[in-house]
Amino acid sequence: MSTLLFVYGTLKRGCCNHAHLAGQQFVGDARTVPGHRLHDMGGYPGLITAAEEPGSVEGEVWSVDPKALTHLDAFEGVAEGLYRRAPVALQPPFDDQRIEAYWPVGPMESLPV
């Protein structure tokens, strides 16, 4: 069973880590609902929710098989507590689907937007 995954940084098409999605299916371009922003974590972005944020974040939705998802979890440092994979709210046409994203763990507010 595949997982729908929202990618917003270096995993997107044309970016430096896109090869980690090799063999997976691109579903479409997507955007979060308002209340999200990216912070600069030093060479890659981190997605956060910010209720006061009027903007949204652009990204892509991918259908990822279990083997690739295990690889991506390792790449993103899920076991080490760097990121967690959890649902993200997206705008139509993805608003009625369960789609996950990688969320950084720890305080982000002090990092540049």
3D architecture notes:
With 113 residues, the chain is mainly beta. Helix content is 10%, strand content 35%. The chain is built from 1 helix and 7 strands, in the order βββββαββ. It has one helix at 66-76; strands at 3-7, 25-31, 36-40, 45-49, 58-64, 83-87, 100-104. The strands form 2 sheets. It has a 5-stranded mixed β-sheet with strand order 2-5-1-7-6. The chain has a two-stranded antiparallel ribbon with strand order 3-4. β3 (36-40) and β4 form a beta hairpin. The mean pLDDT is 92.
Features:
113 residues, mainly beta, globular, 5-stranded mixed beta sheet, two-stranded antiparallel sheet, 7 strands
Offer a quick outline of the entry.
The protein is mainly beta and 113 residues long.
- Please list the strands of the largest sheet in the order they lie side by side: 2-5-1-7-6
How far apart lie the N and C ends? 35 Å
How many β-strand stretches? 7
The string of secondary-structure elements, in order, is EEEEEHEE
What is the count of DSSP helices, taking H or I runs of 4+ residues?
Answer: 1
**% residues in beta strands:** 25-35%
Our Rg estimate from Cα atoms comes to: 13 Å
Detail the topology: elements first, then pairings.
Blueprint: E1 3-7, E2 25-31, E3 36-40, E4 45-49, E5 58-64, H1 66-76, E6 83-87, E7 100-104
Parallel strand pairs: 1-7
Antiparallel strand pairs: 1-5, 2-5, 3-4, 6-7
